[in-house]
Design goal:
Distance between the termini: 34 Å
Strand content: 5-15%
Largest sheet: 9 strands, mixed
Number of helices: 21
Number of domains: 1
Shape: globular
Number of strands: 11
Radius of gyration: 22 Å
CATH superfamily: EreA-like (biosynthetic domain)
Helix content: 40-55%
Length: 449
């Protein structure tokens, strides 16, 4: 366990190597220099409900798009929902505005993408693309996740009904394997994994194989639009295959289901890079997801238990062409639920635990700062010492915080750089219910002392 004296000594060294973030135009110049000519910049978040993480991530992404030629933002969201946003920001959607474009995000946790900060970024991205001159590439917005099994099935069928009605009939027959379970993929996963029902694995693989076999013919029909539509449909078919596997794995080990999901997200990122870079400059993509997905799993106790993640897989595939950036906070508020599928609340984030990176960064004494974890050998060595690190997802349970939200990590191996914001506030959902507005009761309730 790190002692208070040791922690203060480390904090003093860090204070001499940080870059303070004061809201000035050159705040992120050192980070841009660190990124250099990287093709993939993975920007995490220590929670799914913190305003500063969303806003600062958006500001860095704007800089990457404007100054370094990045042309895609890939996010921890379902492929069909994000593609609707992509259509809007590229000027090809029927949605009238950014709010409408985000309306596909209907399932829990809606606030992850239906929030004020994402709304602002989507509006900016549409304006940026609208202003792009003739030959300038537009920037797109894409999802990496795999929870949209039924929406992706419908997307594949809709595409085939338009381009190949006979193939659509065959696809509908294969996908009817899921019909017994309605719109509940977890019910399917339980039945298939427990032997109550046959799995649909063969059917979804056959459908993806047939679609890929016909890809050349479909792509030749209407130029670039046909290529884009085919890519969208093929990714949906691949998503169905991996989602089927994921929902079966849910009722096995946590490691297995986590790995299915992150392997899918990493492969989607690779496929997206090939598609975006097709016939032009090599694609450069910003990725938005939780720290737990984007920090290299090999540097955490996740990796020790057999889990891998997008950060690890991207580093392994692209080497120094991938830069991993994390976020942290000491205390504040966060938008999160107490249990799955419950209403969003504005919850208090407790101060970082003793022995954690969050508590250490608080001791540095500078409210907001950037730390290059490879700035020099002394910093790197200190940040290779294992410490606790906090992760708040869509659920936050402060009453069991040590068990529910902390894990051990070696930060300098996990990320290339860290952005620390000492006091943060909850992201604002577009649907601000009274439940969220009221927030949590004070810890001193009912005495309020």
């Amino acid at each position: 366990m790190t002692t208070t004296t040791e922690s203060r000594s480390v904090a003093h060294v860090l204070s001499e190597n940080i870059h303070p973030l004061r809201g000035e135009p050159d705040d992120f110049a050192p980070l841009l220099a660190r990124i250099g000519e990287a093709r993939f910049v993975l920007i995490g978040e220590a929670s799914h409900g913190t305003h500063e993480f969303y806003r600062i991530r958006s500001e860095i992404t704007k800089l990457l798009i404007r100054t370094k030629g990045f042309t895609a933002v890939a996010v921890e969201a379902d492929w069909p929902d994000a593609y609707r946003v992509n259509e809007f920001v590229r000027g090809g959607a029927k949605d009238a505005d950014a709010v409408e474009a985000l309306s596909g995000f209907r399932r829990f946790p809606q606030w992850m993408w239906r929030n004020a900060d994402v709304l602002d970024f989507i509006g900016w991205l549409r304006s940026y693309n609208d202003a792009a001159s003739g030959g300038s590439p537009m920037a797109g917005f894409y999802g990496l996740d795999l929870y949209s099994l039924h929406a992706s099935i419908e997307a594949v069928l809709s595409y085939l009904r338009r381009v190949d009605p006979a193939a659509a009939v065959r696809a509908a027959g294969r996908y009817s394997c899921f019909d017994h379970f309605g719109q509940d993929p977890q019910a399917y996963g339980y039945a298939a994994s427990s032997g109550i029902s046959d799995s649909c694995e063969t059917e979804v693989i056959e459908q993806l194989v047939e679609l890929r076999r016909s890809a050349g013919e479909y792509a030749r029909r209407d130029g670039q639009r046909a290529i884009d539509d085919l890519f969208y449909a093929e990714q949906n078919a691949r998503l169905v295959q991996n989602a089927e596997r994921y929902y079966r794995a849910m009722f096995g080990s946590r490691v297995s289901s986590w790995n299915v999901r992150d392997l899918h997200m990493a492969e989607t990122l690779h496929e997206l890079a090939d598609h975006v870079g097709r016939g032009g400059p090599t694609a450069k993509i910003v990725v938005w997801a939780h720290n737990s997905h984007l920090g290299d799993a090999r540097a955490t106790e996740m990796g020790a238990s057999g889990e891998l993640n997008v950060g690890q897989l991207t580093r392994e595939r692209y080497g120094d062409k991938a830069v991993l950036v994390g976020f942290s906070t000491h205390r504040g508020t966060v938008t999160a639920a107490s249990n799955w599928d419950e209403p969003a609340q504005r919850k208090r984030v407790r101060p970082g635990l003793d022995g954690s990176y969050e508590a250490l960064f608080h001791e540095v004494g500078t409210p907001n700062f950037l730390l290059d974890l490879a700035a020099n050998e002394e910093v790197r060595t200190l940040m290779l010492q294992p410490r606790l690190e906090r992760a708040i997802g869509v659920i936050y349970r402060p009453e069991t915080e040590r068990m529910s939200h902390y894990f051990s990590a070696r930060l300098a191996d996990q990320f290339d750089a860290i952005l620390h914001y000492d006091v943060t506030r909850a992201v604002e959902p577009l649907e601000r219910t009274g439940h969220w507005e009221n927030g949590e009761l004070p810890e001193t309730y009912p005495s309020a002392l």
